[in-house]
Amino acid sequence: MCGIIGVIDRKRELMDGSSIRQALSRMNERGSGEGAGYVAYGVFPEFKNYYAIHVFFDNIHESKGAVDALLSEWGTIVHDEEIPTSDHARIRKVHTPWRYFFKPDATLMPRSTAPEEDIVTYIVMRVNTTMTGVLIFSSGKNIGVFKASGWPEDVADFYKIHEYKGYIWLGHNRYPTNTPGWWGGAHPFNLLNWSVVHNGEITSYGTNRRYIESYGYQCTMFTDTEVVAYLVDLLVRRHGLSAEMAVKALAPPFWDEIDRMPEKERLLHTAIRLTYGPALMNGPFAIVVANENSIVGFTDRIKLRPLVSGEFGNRLFISSEEAAIRTMEPDVEKIVMPRAGSPIVGRLIA
Amino acid sequence: MDKIEIDAKELHYTPLNQQIRKAVHEGAKEITIRNIMGQRFIADGLKGGVSLFLHGVAGGDLGMFMSGPDITLYGNADHAPGNTMDAGTIAIHGSAGDAVAHSMRGGKVFVRDTIGYRGGIHMKQYLDKRPVLVIGGSARSFLGEYMAGGLILVLRRTPDAMNDERGIGSGIHGGEIFIRGKIDNNCVGVGTKKDPCSGDEIARIIPLIHEFAEKFGVDPAPFLKSEYTRISPASARPFANKYTWE
Asked: How far apart are the first and last CA of chain B?
């Protein structure tokens, strides 16, 4: 099942985490108390030019030295601290969440067109595949992921998300089905500035994973959603597709629909399907993806999971349930259910 | 105690349903519930001649297994209102999510505006139990999927709506779907037959048009003078050779 919600304020007006906490708890019927999480954009203004590397340590004394050394090898740690948590929330603290603000040294990746991002991606993959007891779960600029095993309201209280202010928030209430609930398996999944929340299953995970691993991404979190974050990074950041076209690659129209399209459109969609065949995601899903400029929501092409959007002033809301949106904004307007496989996009206008 | 009011603000569906059942047990004839915000399973399995007036956004499975009561919802409904409903009426003054009237086996569901995907999936009928789903606006793809009985009527206030949908009546093996106006061949699913409506068939939907118009205070005239398309199973056993060979 799972419940998802996302909101963007198109003029960057900041919202604290208290209302998304309420909205996500509204969908507790969609969760099982084994995982919940949030991501907020714009939460570290004083460090906005540095990558905010968020890490779960099993044992700080055993592993932190190795992470410090790796980061120092590839750049400068501008500041690091334990992520503040509350002792009163009903969360068993099985990991120590830590964050680094990191400046990669671009001269160390001389042949890359995006050296800083490539260094950070390399560090995330390296840490998550070779170091035991360490997981990097958030690595964007001015972005923080807050996730753990528990109910949404408990995870929110644990990380005190009401003290953070962001212009984009995503939230996820997890009902794990195919893999056990654990902190790293809670959503959102993040790489660089991409964050993903997802309800459903990607039954094409095997195909998608083989495809994405051929581009150097490595799947380490025992869950299908991770692959969505990497696919979006590949298609949009590295290949330069628009959000709309990326969704058409991930959840394409059926061949019989393509056959009926006007010539130009038919050629475009045929090319997208042929080029990105192994990126096509099958199975039931509703997904919201965010980066620093926008949020995009879409479902699988035969609509096996729910998704509703609503607007209020400069804000666009996307969620599994209208009631969750109304909990955040009682006066929300233009409640719409997007068509299967069609993206609903909210972009910054200021 | 004929009339009772319940405030559902921040109330979980379990105590809410307990209050509803207690009121019905004590003889209430009209129950008004305010401030509904996504509570699931409202009035599930409820029996009797009671009327419920709901204000707010109802969560999934409104009136599931319900047998007899009359529900009026002022607001939108989430997924599957009327799921496996046995008797009674649900009238939604708004829109509804996916799988409306899922597996419904009796009674009537009216939706003033639009519904999501898979409306009327696997509706069924037996003897005099003939469920009815009436939609004032339009429905998304896979309307009446695997339908085994009952009747779906789509009044399509916007005549072109639904021409981009697919799989209408896909897998239908009983019952009938009426859609106002014409619908493209590409929209209907496998195993279906699509014909203009005959006079006898129109006669079956006229009382439903009047009932819809009365419930939502709209003029029935434009619906009464329209042509309708009827979608029904291609044969008595359209999938006889799909899973077994005789």
From this structure: 61
Exposure letters A285-324 (e unless 16+ CB within 10 A, then b)? bbbbbbbbebbbbbbbbbbbbbbbbbbbebbbbbbbbbbb
Measure the CA–CA gap between A274 and B139, rounded to whole angstroms: 32
Continuous segment of H or E residues that includes residue A16? strand A15-16
- Asked if A324 lies within 8 A of B97 by C-beta distance, the reply is no
Q: First CA to last CA across chain A, in angstroms?
A: 35
Given A29, A306, A324, which is nearest B40 (Cβ)? Answer: A29
* Closest Cα in chain A to B98: A306
Q: What fold is seen in the domain B95-239? A: Pectate Lyase C-like (2.160.20)
Contact list in A for residue B141 (CB cut-off 8 A) is 302-303, 340
CB neighbour list of residue A197: distance below 8 Å, 6 or more residues apart: A4, A5, A6, A39, A170, A171, A172, A187, A188, A189, A225, A287, A288
In the predicted model, is pLDDT for residue B142 greater than 80?
Answer: yes
B140 touches chain A (CB under 8 A): yes
- For residue range A308-322, list pLDDT tens digits in order: 999 999 999 999 999
d(CA A315, CA A167): 9
* Cβ–Cβ under 8 Å, residues B95 and B117: no
Q: Does pLDDT of B213 surpass 70?
A: yes
Please name every residue paired with A259 in a beta bridge, in sequence order, or none if there are none: none
Give the per-residue pLDDT at B122.
Answer: 97
CATH architecture of the domain with range A3-43+142-347: 4-Layer Sandwich (3.60)
